[in-house]
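We were asked to recover a plausible sequence for a given structure. The inputs and outputs are reproduced exactly as logged, with field labels preserved.

PROBLEM: sequence recovery
POSITIONS: 298
GIVEN STRUCTURE:
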């Protein structure tokens, strides 16, 4: 048997010749990457507060931020919540305040408290009752909460009732309860001075030029005597009981206020006392009087 011996140099030379003999396209192989884009999972991307009367998002709550405070005094009266989703969502489970099965919604828009084709229904009072609440919203890729659960979203929010309207104490019969500053040109209370608070400061440059004052009274009052230092006493015999008098308007209704003279609103400190009576002209039984201290500034 014969043997053939190849030198290293000869072998390398042969390989080089073989490479040269290959087509140019075969000599260069470019790397390629294959990208696979799976279907995005069903996802809840956020929650939006909805005005159920307009079916529109409530400004400032699209989306609702985690830990949000909802002041009912500053919000529409009828509210709902919408789950914003992406991916192949076919149904959504809402959990509320520990009830994981509060509501199943089977079609967009996915609303917490139901809707009819985007016409939102208002949520029950419990959903927005004052206090802290939690929502857990889970999307599914099949109807009726079936198939695979996607990426859920959770939210905590606090509802506050806002300032409560002050409860007016009943005014005792035959008593003066308060005073109101009146614009004698419009016959309406001056904003911020209904009623006048004890120690009120009246800056004339910020007030209407023609002013009067009304005594607010309880039942059984038929006249009021106004007393003020430096000004003659004045008795008003018919409601409204005005410090500087009033007349009847074109329809015959009393309450067309006359402007006070310079004495009642002269710069300086004043004390006004109004005493009610059960008969006209400050006669009969005297009731519970009220005094008011106020300061007038230019």
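RECOVERED SEQUENCE:
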């Amino acid at each position: 048997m014969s043997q053939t011996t190849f030198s290293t140099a000869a072998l390398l030379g042969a390989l080089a010749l073989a490479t040269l003999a290959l087509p140019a396209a075969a000599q260069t192989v470019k790397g390629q990457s294959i990208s696979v884009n799976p279907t995005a999972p069903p996802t809840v991307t956020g929650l939006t507060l909805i005005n159920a009367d307009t079916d529109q998002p409530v400004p400032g709550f699209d989306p609702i931020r985690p830990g949000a405070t909802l002041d009912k005094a500053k919000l529409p009266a009828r509210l709902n919540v919408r789950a914003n989703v992406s991916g192949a969502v076919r149904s959504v489970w809402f959990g509320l305040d520990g009830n994981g099965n509060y509501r199943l919604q089977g079609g967009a828009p996915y609303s917490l408290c139901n809707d009819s084709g985007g016409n939102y229904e208002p949520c029950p009072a419990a959903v927005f009752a004052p206090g802290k609440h939690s929502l857990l919203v889970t999307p599914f890729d099949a109807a009726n909460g079936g198939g695979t659960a996607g990426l859920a979203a959770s939210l905590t929010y606090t509802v506050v009732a806002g300032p409560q309207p002050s409860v007016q104490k009943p005014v005792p019969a035959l008593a003066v309860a308060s005073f109101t500053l009146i614009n004698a040109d419009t016959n309406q209370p001056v904003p911020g001075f209904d009623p006048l608070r004890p120690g009120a400061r009246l800056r004339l440059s910020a007030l209407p030029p023609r002013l009067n004052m009304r005594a607010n009274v309880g039942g059984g009052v038929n006249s009021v005597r106004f007393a003020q230092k430096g000004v003659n006493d004045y008795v008003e015999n018919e409601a409204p009981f005005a410090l500087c008098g009033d007349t009847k308007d074109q329809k015959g209704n009393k309450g067309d206020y006359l402007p006070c003279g310079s004495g009642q609103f002269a710069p300086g400190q004043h004390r006004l006392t109004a005493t009610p009576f059960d008969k006209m002209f400050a006669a009969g039984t005297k009731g519970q009087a009220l005094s008011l201290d106020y300061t007038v500034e230019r």
